[in-house]
Amino acid sequence: MTLTRGELEIDYDLDQASITHFAADGFVKLRKVLSPATIAAYEPEITGKVIELNTQHLPLEERDTYGKAFLQVMNLWQNSELVLEFVSSPRLARIAAQLLGVRSVRLYHDQALYKESGGGVTPWHADQYYWPFATDRCVTAWIPLQETPLEMGPLAFAAGSQSFDHGRDLPISDDSERILQTALAEQKYPEVVEAFELGDVSYHRGWTFHHAGANETDIPRRVMTVIYVDAEMEIAEPVNRFQEADLATWMPGNQPGDRISSPLNPVLY
């Protein structure tokens, strides 16, 4: 076992204050979850797979708002044993289970989100709009692979918005940015944005509204994400075409009413 793989298997000391913060605000940013050495061991492989598997080749100026926000490549773990080591980390998965208050979590899918130099804003949205889940016991780990100053476009969260129903029917778009910016401000949900030091990781609930600024630096904002769900999660009837596609793509062979159990959704903790 390598030293870096060893860190991915060792428990992180998650304190009660962080669990309480997550419950109240729908997100938490945790310090020094991963060492620089661990990130350095996996970043080149993750970035290499993003370059290899990326299907977005239009110039930035010719893309829509979603396309300008980031390069998005999913389930890298299926294409690399090294990425599989990273995505299946018990350290990261145990944090997800502790924050959700569940005994066990399984993988939904991973996705790399690389915001190119000059890449645009990521509009306000809630991830669970895209996911056909019966409960809210799901969480995304957002793992920057470099220091992420404010001008690079780190995630910004609307604290407490995981309980806000308005706007849950909006996909990522110019409309979601405009409508939610106004609605969240009217409801006085504080917008929280901070720089990420190397090794910091945030976790946010599926219904927590978030967005990100443009990347105004001359280097890409490289981020790996892992989405976890309660191991007992049941699949809801899809309510939009995106949820229909997610069911077919990320939970093959499962149907509404089933507990998630496809080969693409292993238990990680």
TrEMBL record:
This is Phytanoyl-CoA dioxygenase family protein. Pfam families: PhyH (PF05721). Keywords: Dioxygenase, Oxidoreductase. Signal peptide: none annotated. GO terms for molecular function: 2-oxoglutarate-dependent dioxygenase activity; iron ion binding. The keyword Oxidoreductase applies.
